[in-house]
Specification:
mainly beta; Porin; GMP Synthetase, Chain A, domain 3; 3 domains; 13-stranded antiparallel β-sheet; twelve-stranded antiparallel barrel; OMP/PagP_B-barrel; Exopolysaccharide biosynthesis protein YbjH; signal
Amino acid sequence: MLRKAFLATTALTAVIGHQANAQDVDLSYGFFGMPGLIDMPIAQSADEGEIAGSLIAKDGMFRLNFGAQLTDRLSGSASYTLTDIYDATGTGIETSELERSFSLQYRLVNESTYVPAIAIGMRDFLNPGRFQSEYVVATKSIGDSLTVTAGLGWGAMGTHDGFDNPIGSRGDRPEFDENTPEGQLATDQWFSGDAALFGGASYQINDKWGMMAEYSSIAYPQQAFAPVFDVESPYNFGVTYRPLDGVQVSLVSLYGADVALSGTFVLNANNRPGMGGIESAPAPVKVRSENMRAARTWDREAVSEAGLRSAMQALLEIEGLELTGLEVTDRTARVRYVNGQYRSQAQAMGRVARMMTQVMPGSVETFILEPEVNGIPLSSTSLARSDLERLENRAGASDAILARAQFSDASGDAGLMPVASDASAFSWGISPYFAVTSLGSEGDRSADIGLKLNARYQITPQILLSGAIVQSLLKDDSEDPVTDTTPDLHNVRTDGGFYGDDGVPVMESLMLTHYGRPAENLYSRVSGGYLERMYGGVSAELLWKPVESDFGFGAEVNYVSQRDTDMGFGFDEYDYDIVTGHVSAYYDIGDGYHAQLDLGRYLAGDWGGKVTLAREYANGVTVSAYVSQTDVSYEDYGDGSYNKGVRISIPQDFLTGRPSRKDYGATLRTRSGDGGAMLNVDGRLYEVVRDAHTNDLSDSWGRFWR
């Protein structure tokens, strides 16, 4: 052990003492979803906003990682690990076990000429899990190609040649117990038990090829990791290859006994990977003559209001926008429209304003723009036409026009002439889907891949009929559980994998929704029908959200019954109904951060709360994490005492460069029991409303002139 400690200490001395520029080499991603060597972490961080997805494969194990550089110093990752497990005889592999883990790392010290980067981190910290570890690590660049790393680990990272805890006795650390359910926050174990040293180095040969070696402090004890890991040596070696920017492939030798292959795809939420500006160029601002600008009225015999409506409707259709209402006076023009084209409402506003300069009489000086969704106006933005004419081609034009814009709640319908839509009321689409759902209360899962047919019919601007039919193509079915480990709690979610398992097309949802504006700053939604794959009933929501406020408050109440597992029209199989709902508080923290608190009654009748924190980047990429806990006891909750998860959402236009309001999302969560389960109903109001309010408009206002 002294020889290993000497090696790690020597590496640490080199890290601290050698003069070099800070972080001159490309970062590689390790096996836990964050910048690292192989199994061991490094202290250096990726660029803020960098997001990485990786897949690691070795005999008996597959791991899917999702990592993100959340701030300049804070990084996090979520990992799904599928490992083989022995049968009862201990001689053969019976099945595979899926484990979820979440990790965080915070850079305490920035790297400089003489000082290494120093970071503190935790792996699998939300559970007393197989990989749970804490560590302190230092990393230093040496020249343009070499970095060296040394650190101290606890938990799983303190199992090889461990020694007494250098920060004082916090008691012995219990061995991993596979019967301990996920969901128990084991804070009493953090930085407890033995500690061990680790270290390593990486060398970038050229832009494409690199090498790395590490001394691991993970022993992979057989009682926790057999038969997947066989450790003959603490040394790991690897080669990395970068065929393209943002793509890393690694081949590694693990512990002298195994070989693993990994692939990592990296993108930065602040940099568009697809080509920007593929959308058509906007029409230029039409500048009025001095005589037109001085006019106080316009000739209605020469230019009729009906003619203005037709011209404005035709021009907005070119932009993929739909005119729904128009009011024109001598000095003001108010346009209400639906943006079905651009993710950024600010970009849509810029397009509308340009088109208005092409059509509106010269005496009209004030433009009022009112974006609308599902028949409800979301906000009112007033712009001076002369500002548009003066600022279009000037440096800093976006900030200048934002400073002059006036935001308020949308005006009423008085004076607004409705415009009949030329668009079809019916729309549909087919897309693939992938879902992982619960199978019984013991934490088993069912994976499902198939096709989804979505359709919607806009009966009136405020009344929408929508539905979805799904056809499973590949599903790993499982037998019904013999026993229910949470008999005091109804299986509101843990039977989800048995829904639609007959291999025929099934109705995922079919509902009628009405959206409204009952008063100033108030929005409403009432939905009825088959609201989601497991429940049908009625859902009602009310949201208070002033246009210029950082805060929003909402309330939702639902009366639902559990559907039959064939996902037809029946509700007889479970004979279960419940009133559920919650009150919600929303807060725009600033700099793209959003917080949400939900308090109320869940589907199983339990009471509790859910906290969600999200980071939304300027390009629309959103990373969020949530945790929820209720009054259900640990024993009855269903595989853990609380729920938590991470979600990423990527707009389609971020990937393709073409304008679109569609996005792609995925949620990585721990095993979710029946406690803390919420209704999954589409069209909740806050996400519908906020992107046309001041804060979101300001965040994406740089697109106004695009």
